[in-house]
From TrEMBL:
PROSITE patterns: PROKAR_LIPOPROTEIN. PANTHER family: PROTEIN BAX. It comes from the Bacteria. This is Mannosyl-glycoprotein endo-beta-N-acetylglucosamidase-like domain-containing protein. It comes from Syntrophotalea acetylenivorans. InterPro entries: Bax-like, MGlyc_endo_b_GlcNAc-like_dom. Residues 162-288 form the Mannosyl-glycoprotein endo-beta-N-acetylglucosamidase-like domain. GO terms for molecular function: amidase activity.
Length: 312
């Protein structure tokens, strides 16, 4: 490895370490480029949200121009008042797509830095303190039993788990589980995917919960945290090993990840099993979500040019 390559690796590692640590402090605090930042909005009404999308020239028919890198911290509480179902779906999908792409980018960057750390270790080079912290954090986050640096099975598991999810699958499940952002849990807890918790008093108690049950529906500070938690759930929980196996096979064959295919690994997400998988696939097809496979984020807006959303 020549001097230039070493310098490039160092730059990549330092920048990604800042990104990862910033994500732990706040989902919205890290810069996307040297001149741009992630903009966040909390629209109080669906009209305000619609105006924001229009100002940013962000529509279904121009996704080939890129997706603006902004984050909706919470959906407006009046989405259910939109009588036009097509319009309600449009706002829902466009609002969440940037979060999905940003979460996938975070995973991609973590994977890149993991591979660098693994190469350093295998070459007999000492890992830096940030690299050691990265390995420790990933080992815990992805529920590994042994150190992926020294245990081949754990390394293989981590590389299979630390991977992106197709946007069409994520959006279809969010739509299904949250009623396109109109459910009680999405409104009160920013929970888009129906994730549970057993920490008493920390979540929302389902109205249909029986006296013997103890689960609650998790609360999230913002929608991005809900997306990240959901992705980690699919990537780490043993119930979704088949989904990860499908993804690994697709990667090996150099095929694009499609929600229609990976949905087969969601049988255990619902007690409805195959009917649930069919429903997710139906949402993907009926809303033409598969076209999102190739979309990407636009460059971040320069700090001086950022919109003042408070005036919307």
């Amino acid at each position: 490895m020549d001097r230039y390559q070493k310098i490039l690796l160092l730059i990549l590692f330092v920048s990604s370490t800042f990104l990862i640590s910033a994500c732990e402090r706040s989902a919205f605090s890290w810069p996307t480029t040297e001149t741009g930042t992630i903009e966040t909005i909390t629209p109080v009404s669906h009209r305000e949200l619609s105006r924001y999308l229009a100002i940013n020239n962000y529509h279904w028919d121009n996704l080939d121009q890129g997706v603006p890198p902004f984050l909706v911290t919470a959906l407006p509480k009046d989405l259910h008042r939109i009588k036009d179902i097509t319009e309600r779906k449009r706002l829902f999908f466009l609002s969440l797509l940037p979060s999905v792409l940003l979460a996938n980018r975070e995973i991609t960057l973590q994977r890149r830095q993991l591979l660098i750390a693994l190469r350093h270790h295998d070459a007999g080079l000492p890992l830096s303190a940030p690299q050691q912290m990265l390995i420790s954090d990933l080992t815990q986050s992805y529920r590994l039993h042994h150190n992926p640096l020294t245990d081949p099975r754990s390394r293989k598991q981590l590389l299979q788990r630390l991977d992106t999810l197709p946007p069409d699958l994520v959006l279809a499940q969010a739509a299904n589980e949250s009623g396109y952002g109109t459910s009680r849990f999405s409104k009160l807890g920013n929970n888009l995917f129906g994730q549970w918790t057993y920490a008493a008093g920390t979540g929302l108690v389902p109205k249909e919960r029986s006296a013997k049950q103890r689960h609650e529906v998790r609360r999230f500070d913002n929608l991005y945290d809900s997306v990240r938690s959901y992705m980690n759930n699919l990537n780490a929980h043993r119930a979704y090993r088949s989904l990860r196996a499908i993804r690994t096979k697709k990667r090996y064959r150099k095929q694009a990840l499609q929600g229609i295919d990976l949905a087969a690994g969601l049988r255990l997400y619902s007690s409805r099993r195959d009917a649930y998988v069919a429903e997710i696939r139906s949402i993907i097809r009926n809303n033409r979500l598969s076209r999102l496979t190739t979309v990407s984020l636009r460059p971040a807006v320069a700090k001086g040019d950022a919109l003042n959303t408070a005036s919307l």
